[in-house]
Amino acid sequence: MHSTRTACSTQASWAGPPVETPEVRTDLSPEALASPDLALSNDIIRTCVHCGICLSHCPTYQVRHDENDSPRGRIVLMRNMLEKGGTPDEMTVKHLDRCLSCLACEAICPSGVKYSKLIGQSREHIEAHYPRPAVQRGMRHLLAKLVPSPGLFRMALIAGRAARPMRSLFPGTLRAMLDALPGHAARRPSAVDRPQVFPAQGPRRARVSMLSGCVQKVLEPGINEATIRLLQRHGVEVVVARGAGCCGALSDHMGMAEQAQPMMKANIEAWLREAGAGDSIDAIIINASGCGTAVKAYGHALRHDPAWAERAARVSALAKDVTEFMTDIGLNADLVRPERTASMRVVYHAPCSMQHGQHIVHQPLDLLRKAGFEVAEPPDSFMCCGSAGIYNLLQPEIAGELKRRKAWSIRSVDAAVAATGNIGCMTQLADAVGIPFVHTVELLDWATGGPEPQALRGSKPPGSAQLEKAVSESASGPVAGSNPTI
User: Fold this and answer.
1) CATH code where residue 90 lies
2) Which of 44, 369, 370, 425 is the most buried (most CB within 10 A)?
3) Parallel, antiparallel, or unpaired: how do β-strands 417-420 and 437-439 relate?
4) pLDDT digits (tens, 9 = 90+) for 186-230
């Protein structure tokens, strides 16, 4: 099959001189197109017109200014790789590995290119056909085993804190892992993460299951506790289902479908068991937006499996971010304690997986304002912070630059506290913004009668002098000599 679409030479004004963009075409054989995955990738590639609008929103292009590190450049690389088949070349793998999968390009694309599905298929192809160097391969598989297991992750966290003073002796990913450790020790396991049912307070309005997750309940178990309290207070019964665990996003993002899909199926089985136990569930609540994006894609991930496709699609339809669900049922204004919130200014960091992956934009902001907080957004709120799952471990240089830019952006806003809806963003940015960093649901819980978030205890809002000092220490802007709007 041979198809052609005329390219457009439009490019953002700061992206440098115009580049020669070839016609977008595909040349996959009829035999290759018999594969549903390749047929889908072919259709997605042909949707792209190479207009270049995505360049202004692509974090790696803004850092590196390399066409191969832009969405449209990667689409050409993926097209060439899939047409050729077999072993990808090293350059292609390098540039596809640098993609954060932040999906800012997909959110802004006027042609509707489903980039997330294309990069996902391409990563599976790389995983199946590219012989990575032994050390790189070993580190990726170590992370795929370590991070989804709360027990192993907790042990690694303890060992990492002991080794951190010797970080200069470690290379690459190992050093990045030590740098990414939170400033506090591993929290004690929370009792709420065990399988159980939390009854609604007052008349029951809804019954939901909550994903307790993996990394989050080790690093910040208070987030799950706050989520359950907030929902109970609003008449929601919360079920922590037996057998549910890691969502599988980490392995899936590395193209490791064989490792990711058993985790997906375990969650589907656990949640639908609750849904079919004589008392159905109204939603599956997720309070880490990276996990939410993954669960909402279960239907796509398992679409070719006749035993699981329908059940996976049902779970994806039930999945809701906690702020999405709270918007649906409404925050009870009578519960709000204005003495806690009226004088607090919050800067809200929008996770990519929430705003681009799930198209949840206004809900967290509206809820915080309804709870009485004054809410501000940082400049360039669409731009990724560099966390992106374990991207900050595998690509520490790019992730570090994005962290510095995002931290500057947040610190430029005169706020007492920063809030977000993703544990990865919190871990990436907490030590760099100069103010407490909490989950949105922790603030909503506190505002409606819950305990003060741990990060706020004993903290003092920065005065203007402290803020000015923090901003000046951040290299006087995102990058000296670069476009300030990245």
Assistant:
1) 1.10.1060
2) 425
3) parallel
4) 678 899 999 999 999 999 999 999 999 999 999 999 999 999 999
